[in-house]
Amino acid sequence: MANIHKEVLIIGGGPIGIACALACKKRDLDYVILEKGALTNSLYHYPLNMQFFSTSEKLEIENIPFISKSAKPGRDEALEYYRRVVTSNNLEIRLFEKVFSVKKVNNQFHVRSEKNIYTASNVVVATGFYDIPKLLNVPGEQLPKVSHYYKEAHPYVLQKNIVVGASNSAVDAALEIWRKGGEVTMVVRGKSIGDRVKYWVKPDIENRIAEGSITAYFNTEISEIRANEVLLNTPEGPKVLPNDFVIALTGYRPNFEFLQQMGITLSEEKNIPVYNDATMESNIEGLYLAGVICGGTETHKWFIENSRIHATLIADDIYRKMNV
Asked: Considering the entire predicted model, what is its pTM?
């Protein structure tokens, strides 16, 4: 393993990690991004036909224009945009290199990845939240027919499918599967479709439920998943549904254990990490947080359009400290 030193080591190669790298390069800071998967790994694993809530200009980083066919771009357009940003700016990014540990020793961070050992004066954590699904914690969740991610409708055509959840991801999956010829039943813990569902999609799913094209059980939870059926706890009592697939889109969470291993303090209630709003520096000097990771369990609080400013705040603070 090589031993490499950097002024700034950025963990996470998503849009915000890329924004941090651009901000560092603009200030002539020696940096590297380490990404455990593909470039913009979370975006890559989004559903093939996913459309962003934000318009393209709100997804731009460092004022690099994002041109899309419609006001709200899709997954493929976003992948192309961030890909071109990285390649045209010759950003230093090492893909498929997972970080295992970050320890601060004598004012230097020692970072161990699966390929190298690094030292860094500063570390930026921009790891997002898409890697750890919120589990149902019911018997049968480990069966092969259960998935916590949704890519496309084709495998679910002509099958009896249960979609768990009422967020954007669950609604998009339910509508697409139904339109492609799959039978869809939604299981929703709350009393209605989520308030944050995209405004142009919410009437669509509500109308499909009202007309009976998609069945929905509200105030309902799954109690057990079996090979060919699913048991529900409904307001009217237990119910058994024949079933081929369960797509449990109940959300995801950041890797809080990774943050704690680095020594970052988290709040008791929502696991919100301690950081300085003006600099994004955590309770550990030289260790910064960027993007959705800053919201703890409130993963809807930070997203690309309102957290890209983190990159500038972080790079400015590092540059100031190095030039005092």
From this structure: 0.91
